[in-house]
Amino acid sequence: MKKGIVLLLAFILVGSFFTLFPESSSSLGAVENSWSAKKSLPQTGGSRAAVVNGKIYAISGLNHFDYDLATDDWTSVLPKQLVAAQLEGFPYESPTITVLSPLPNGTITVHDITLNVTVQLFGFLFHNIEKINSLNYSLDGQIPVPMKLTIPSDLKPGYYVRGDGILTGVSDGTHILTFYGETRISGIIKNFNTTVSFRVDTTSTLIQEPFPIGQVIAILVTIAVVTVVVLLYFKKRNRMRISLQ
Known about the structure:
Helices cover about 25% and strands about 35% of the residues.
C-alpha cells in the first residue's frame, strides 16, 4: 500500500515538472550550436556564391545554380533568371554605334549607297567580355538585313566591331535608316539601336560634257605648224649668214 502511494506521488511530481517547465522538457532532445555539412558548390571553375532574394546562388560565367535547403541540392537555372541580380551594383555601359556612311542628315547624289558603321563595346561582367551576336539594318521600316561584321581577334573592353553593307536602287527623297544590334555578356542578351536620316537627290548631279578631243587635236596641229615655221625660219636665217660670209 505504501509502495503504491509513493509511486503515485512520484508520478504527480514528474507531471507537474513538465507542466511548469515545458521549455526545459523540449530542450532535452535539442542539439544547440551545431554545424552540419551540406552539398558542396558545383565544380564549374571560379564559382562565386551569393545570396539573392533569400536564395543561395553559385555563379560562374554562363553556369548558374541555386541551392535548395530542403533537398540539399544545387539546381541549374537559366541565366536570364539572374539578370537583375547580376547587373545590380555593376556598372554597365551600352554599346556605342557610329554611322560613318551614309552621313547622317547628308545628301547623296547616287542611287547605290555604301553602308559603314562601327560599334564600340565596353561590357565586362564576371570575367566575361561583351560580344556582338548580330548587327542588322532596315531602310524605311523594311525587313532588317544582316550586315557583314569584322571583329578583332584581341577583345578588350572598348574594342570596335565594323559593320558593312550596301543599299541599291534607293529612290530620290528623304529616307530613314535604322541599325539594330544584339550582344551577350555573361549569358545576358542586350539590344541596342540607332536611327539616322539622309536624302537622295540625283537631279543635282553635275553633268560632265564629253572630252573635247577635237579641240585638243586642233591645238596640237596648231602647235606643230608653228614649230615647223619657226624651225624653217631659223634654218633659212643660218643659210643667209653663211652665204654672206
